[in-house]
Structures are given as structure tokens and as C-alpha cells.
Amino acid sequence: MDLNPTEEQQQLIEAFSAFYAKECPVELVRSAEPSGYDAELWGRLRAMGVLDMAVDEASGGWGASLLDLALVAEQHGRHLGPAPLIEAQVAARLLARSGSGPSEAALGRARLPDRLTTLALHPPRNGTLSLVPAGAVADEVVFMDGDRLLCMEILEDRRPVSTIGSMPVADIGVGSPVELQAGEQARSNFEQARDEWLALTANAMVGIGTRSLEIGVAYAKERHAFGVPIGSFQSVAHGLADAATGVDGSLLLAREAAWAASEDRGRATQLAALACAFSAEAARAASYRSLHYHGGYGFMLEFDIQLYFRRAKAWPALFGEPAIMYARAAADRLSTSSAGVR
Amino acid sequence: MDFRLGEDSEAFRQEARQFLDEHLTEAVREQMQATGVRHNWDFHRARVEHGMLAPGWPEEFGGQGRDALEVLASAEEFQRAAAPTYGLGTTLMVANIIRHIGTEEQKRLILPKALTGEIIIVLGFTEPESGSDVAAAQTRAVRDGDEWVINGQKMFTTNAQEADYVFLLARTNPDVAKHKGLTTFLVPLRQSGVEIQPVFTLSGERTNLTFYSDVRVDDSLRIGEVDGGWHVMTVSLTFERSGPQGGDSNRLLDAMEEWASTAVDAAGRPVAEDPGVLARLGRAAAENEISVLFARRSAWVQNAGGLPGVEGSMAKLFASEALTRQSADFVDMLGPDGLRSEGEPTAIADGLAEYSYRFSLGTTIYGGTSEVQRNIIAQRGLGLPRG
Questions:
Q1: Which of A87, A99, A66 is nearest to A264 (CA)?
Q2: For the domain A187-335, what is the CATH superfamily, name and number?
Q3: Across the interface, do B5 and A324 touch by the CB < 8 Å criterion?
Q4: Does the model's ipTM exceed the 0.85 cut?
């Protein structure tokens, strides 16, 4: 067991940590509200190679592991990056897995500098793909309908939706999609994409949780009431200790889930869903505690903690509430009879 | 980053499973159930024979010099199987203290017996008037020549009826600040003046109240400096919080998943298709995975030469609170049938859910309550000021 990043992973963390610190200050996050999209930041991320790294070498990419992407996603969450990082990476990986022909062509378009291909997490209902991640700014969307994996150019039938999480989501009408793949293979490829989205979002939540906690702890040390720092009150200290424990636990589980994608395949689906559910709850709890301990200031838009509090709830909820993810993991455990086996 | 424990750990885990298959017999379980005692001499001595007593100790002490992750891999199996390990746990903790700060004479006298399974040692910290505030102990030790005379009471001296020694925290100087007047002793329990009164608990486990009236202990059995007991305690409490986590909750989850894979609801539908049941199982699975990871992180820190302070507190806090939460949740999940007691032939999974509902409470208390762990995490982990 080694919980330390390798030297290469450490370099990756440092590179993206420095990048976000410079290119994604909180002022930029605020100026990108309410759309949750900053085209320049996304352009710089593309120039950093975030899409190239996500694609395997056989498809012309750099072949990063999901754990590598997870370490980047953690920085992305920590800095609340207003850019469609995770969905673009997951969509590109899905296209790369989905055979030749139309998928290959779609991957080629997705990797063009000014193009963006995203992924819908749920099938269309009544002819509409609902709350598609990055749907407000993407050129194409990959989605599943029945047992068919489809890809579609997004035309006029696109309605951007304002949400609590300042995300560039949209409801998109299904026009004339192209079939990429069908049958069991399509279904399994798509479910793997959902696993990857869950695992990466889990790591983004770790970043949100970690930063929320730092903000709350710093405030609890600095703010005085009744002549002492509020962090000396057990009611405050214990809430932060619980939040810290949750965030630490979510970090271990989220990294394990991303690691398992290549190193423990049999548990990858289960761990991705568990990690996203738990990290969502831990980030929500950390941001809630930190906001609350700010007193009235926490309720003011001027204080940054509210930016984290809203996104902690919203980003993972595009998939569904934590209970849905827990149920997904439990169903996988029961069906693969990993229950009881260890 | 690598989340595997490694080949040696997994091989040793297999050894532990084989040992448990052979030695954790129905008879051993029945005795635990009947007496509430989580120590069994036959099982204890079988561990010695199979190198399963203290595998992490150096070979010169009869151990195998295994690293913390290997030891943890086997300990995870013992915990998951609910093996009787309490006597060994406290014995090794005290033996560790003696090994680190004991005199040569103490090492010669105690360590061989402790590590060959001849004796067990129990803890005497808590008193009727002091629990989390360990340093408020009032049990007195007064010097009389080469001996000390002990008077007082200790609570929760679990396994005292089986033990040879109690590792006792006593007040040697009542005139200084409370942390500065404490001393620890290894007090022989089999002598007049020691009275052991059984105490039964919510989980069915037996513990004790012990009384000490003019009990004598030789100065050679004093551990650490006179009035230096607090330093000894700081070391010992860290040992108490390392070790496996998640075993009890994974045993519970195994049983609940087994139930879910066969049971049907009142309308005849498989409960495995009920999203509410699945969400409950999944939530517990996430918590259990984290409990296990937390304990492994502590062992990994130890392997790197560190002392898992805050990490140990997080592991203990999280695992015990998670077990408390999920056992209540599982009693609910089973519906009215969840109420059938452990031991009832009609109970689901032998009543493990309702048993865990009772058992879990103790885990949030002994070894430092959840509140004590939160203080440690807040102050040492987050750097928040003391209240």
C-alpha cells in the first residue's frame, strides 16, 4: 500500500494546482456566474492537454489513467473551475471505446480545438435530454437511448437552464442523432462512462470539501466571540472535526475508486458510485458547517463559502441524489456476489 | 498510489482465515455468548502455537517481525470473525509500553509470559468518577519502603477475572496539578485486598468493577517515573486507537446482504429490487470501505515510521459512529422482524442487527469517546484552539 502520489502524479498535481491558482482565481469563478462557463479558461485547459491526456494512446491520446484524471479533477473542484472538464473527458473516452466508423469520426471532432462534445447522463424523456452537463456550451452530445449509443449535433433546440450550481447545463431536444454502437457492448461502454463520471466527480467533490473545510477552519481561528476564537467552542470544533473526518474519508475512497478503474476492475462500478455518493455528502457537510460557522457573513454573497455550498450539492446531483448512487453500488455488489467475498 | 496491501499481507490474511476456521469453534463462540467474556484461554494459546499472538513483534520476543500492514491484514480477519481478542488487545498494549519504557527487569519478568500466552494484563484507567477525564483518577498509591499501597476503585476492568495484572493509573501526589501527580503500576490481581465485581453491559459483554484495599505492589512494578504517569498514558492511548476497523460493520453488512439476496417483501417482491433497501446497503458499504481504509492508512503511517495520532482518532471515531448509525438503520430495514433478539431461532441473521444496535454503543465510548476523538482531531489535526 502506498497512499503517496508517485513522483509523476505529484508533478501532475503541482502543475494543475499552479495552473488553477493562476488561471482560475475566485474572481473568475464569480465573473463566470451564472453560466458556470469561462471560454478562456476552457481554452487554456484544452491547451494544457486535458482532453489529449484523457484519450488512450491507441486513439491518439496520451493515455492517462483515471487516477491521473482524478487528481486533476480534485484541483478542478478545489478551484470551482467554470469549465466542462469532466464531461468532456468522459465523453472523449467513451467515443474512443465505442468502435471505429462514426465513433472515430466523432472523437476526431471532439478533439478539434474549438469543438466540445459532452455526454448526457440519462436517456431522453419525451424527446428531451434533461439537464445535460455542459449542454449549454457543447457542440455535440453523446447519449444512450434504449440500447443504442447515439451522438448528435446540438442545434437550435437547446434551452440553457439556470441552476443552484452555476453550471452550463441545458435541456436539449433530440433531433437526428447518429448511431455509434448498439446492444450489450454499447450499454456496457456507456455504463463505464457513467462510472468514470461518478469517480471523477467524487474527486472534484473532495476538492470542494477540502477547500470548504480550510475556509471554515481559518474563519473559526480568526473570528472572536465572547472574547475567544469561536473555534475553541466544542460545538464549533466538533462540527469541523466531523467535517474533516468525512472529507478525509472521501479522499481515500474517491482515490481508491479511480485507482480501481484500472487496478481492481471487479470493484470499479461499486466503488465509483460509493465514492461519489459519500464525497457529495462529505463536501455538502463541510461546506454547510463552514458556511454556518460564518454566522450572518456566510449568508452574504460576498463571502466565498456560498460558492462551494451551492456547487457541493449541485454538481453530483446531475446524476441523482446520493441514495441513487448508493443503490447503484449495492445492486452491483449483490449482482456480482462480491457481497460476502473479500 | 497503490491500494493493495501487498502479497505478504494477503498471504498472512489467508493464514489468519485458516487459523480462524480451525480454532474459532462453535464451542468457543458458545462460551463467549454464555459468559459475555471475550477472552478464551484455549483460543489464546492456540494463537501462540500458530504464530498468531504477536506477529508484529520482533523475533527475539517470539514474534515474526511482521510490518503493520501484515499485522493489520490478519487483525481484520479476527475482528470480522468476532474472535475473542479483548484479553490479547490489552495485554499487547501494556507489553508494548513495557517494551518501550519499562526496566530490564520488567521486560524479563513480563514480556516472555505475555507473549507466550501465559498471562493477560488488563487496563485500570477509568474510575467511577472519571472516564474521559482520565487524569482525574483518585485511586491512591502511597509509598511504603520498597512497596506502594493502593486504595481505590476502577471501572470497566474488563477481563480482570482472567488476568494476572492490572495496568493501574494511580495518584501519587495529590498536591500538584492533576496531570503531574499520576503514576502507573503493574498491580498483581491475585492477592488479598483486590475485589472483582462483575458488571454486565448492553451488548451482553461482561466487564468489572475492581476494588483495591491496601493492595501492595513492589516498586519494581512501577512503570515509568514516579509522577510520570501522564506521559505513559499518552503513549498507551495511542496504541489503544490503532488496530483494525470495519470488521464488525462488515460482518453485519455481509449478513444483511445475504438476507437481501433471498428475502421477499409482503407482496412477494425480492427486497433486492427495493431502492430503499439498496440505498441502505450501499450507504453502509461506503462507510465500511472508509473504516477499513482509515485503519489501513494508520498502519501505512506506522510502516513509514510515524505515529498515527489524528489518523487513529479519525479511524476510531468514524468506524464506531458508522456502526452505530447503520445498525439502527438495519433494524429499521428489517421491519418488525428486526426486533427478534439475538438467540431467537426466528431472528434474521441470528439477530445480528439488534445485537449490533446494542454493541455499537460501547464502541463509541471505550478507547476514548467520540467527543474525545473530536477534540484530538480539532486541536491536533485542524489546529483549533483549546476551549
A1: A66
A2: Butyryl-CoA Dehydrogenase, subunit A, domain 3 (1.20.140.10)
A3: no
A4: yes
